[in-house]
Amino acid sequence: MARHTAHRDRSDSPQRKSNMLAMMQGGLALPAGCTLANDEERALWGMYTQARAPDDWRESDLPSVHKIVKLEMLIRAESQLLYEEGTVLLGATGRMVKNPRLAALVSLQQLQLHLARALKIHVVDNPSSMASRARDAKQLFAASDPLCELLNGR
Question: Where are the domains of the chain?
């Protein structure tokens, strides 16, 4: 018996690229029960959800991305407090001690890193892939904008 699986377009096909661009511009919706407090969190949500193609996200991945965003906000707050207080404090006995915020900050960073690795969004772009993506986006915009076609003499 033949096995039927859902056909998926090639990732480099023009149809798939235009679909992904349209989905990326709209952004991914937050899962039920998750909220973003401010514009900075919304910007982080967009940044992390664009790390993969929109149709590659599973519904169960999105709450973890929300946790990564919340952890990033905690990391930023703790980093700011650590900067203000300093890495070494004067202890109760008069000796210099390591600021306990350092350990908290490291724990938050490790947790965030583990979640990012589990979601496979830990890969840093190299310049060639970034240039390739920029070129693809430029071609998509040029293909969808009639004004660009007129300016390019097509």
Answer: 39-49+58-122
Q: Record the pTM.
A: 0.65
Phi, psi at 61, each rounded to 5°:
-80, -30
3-state percent helix, strand, coil for the chain, nearest multiple of 5: 60, 5, 35
Report, as ranges of residue numbers, the positions in the chain whose pLDDT lies below 50.
none
Give the position of tokens 């001690």. Answer: 97
- Residues whose CB falls within 8 Å of the CB of residue 24, separated by 6 or more in sequence, listed in order: 50, 54
Nearest CA-CA partner of 54 in 22, 12, 32 = 22
Residues with Cβ < 8 Å from 79, sequence gap 6 or more? Answer: 105
* Tokens at 105, concatenated: 């900050």
